[in-house]
Amino acid sequence: YSEKRANKDKYDRDQNLLKSQKLLQNPSLIKNKSRRYFIKSEVDEKYILDEEKIKQAQKYDGFISISTNNKTLPIPLILDHYRHLYQIEHTFRSFKSHLEVRPMFHWTERRIRGHLSLCYMTYVLQHYMLRQINQKNNKVSENGLRRALSRMQVSHLLQDGDEFYLRSNNDNEEVQNVINGLKLSPIPSITSKGHIINYLQK
To answer: Which domain of life is it from (predicted)?
Structure first.
């Protein structure tokens, strides 16, 4: 039992009840939605609030059951792993959306394995960077990290046989949080190829 969950369950039920009452005002919109709401049908396709369903839902506010096929695990360990389930779900969402693991435009096993490996390495690197950055309570999100990295660009210039590198403007809070969190040394606005090579070798 969790009081926090009980409050959430009550809030969710109240929201469901409000939607149920709105649907009852326009029965033509109900159709197959009655199972999702506190609504039941009577004769002649008339709909009313399902009071019994509401009472049953109230009885389980704050309770959740967790099952496992490993009976040797201690209960605190099972609960701890369950609390981290959201991280696994978040990882799958990140793979499917931001890292674009699918749709997959590869046909050979070698290319498919390479694509999946690259997505996995990208996620690990992203996760490591976020942990390093947020150790100082910078609170940089995945989207914030991607925005910052897209701003941190260097252009390669050639002039009279000399090579130069022009850095983009880093006067942005998200960019500064990433630079400071990863303890990166600042790069001058314009720098030489040798300086860039030395910078990358540090």
So the answer is: Bacteria
Both tokens of 2, joined, read 């969790």
Give dist(CA 105, CA 96) in Å, integer.
Answer: 14
Give the whole-angstrom CA distance, residue 174 versus residue 138: 9
Quote the CA–CA distance of 164 and 167 in Å, as a whole number.
Answer: 10
The long-range contacts involving 99-105, CB below 8 angstroms and separated by at least 24 positions, are 99/123
The pLDDT score that the predictor gives to residue 91 is: 82
- Supply φ then ψ for residue 152, to 5 degrees: -85, 80
> What is the pTM for the complete model shown?
0.54
Element (H, E) at 191: strand 190-192
**How many angstroms separate the Cα of 137 from the Cα of each of 127, 140, 150, 173?**
15, 8, 22, 14
pLDDT in tens, 34-78: 567 778 877 766 888 888 889 998 999 999 888 889 889 998 898
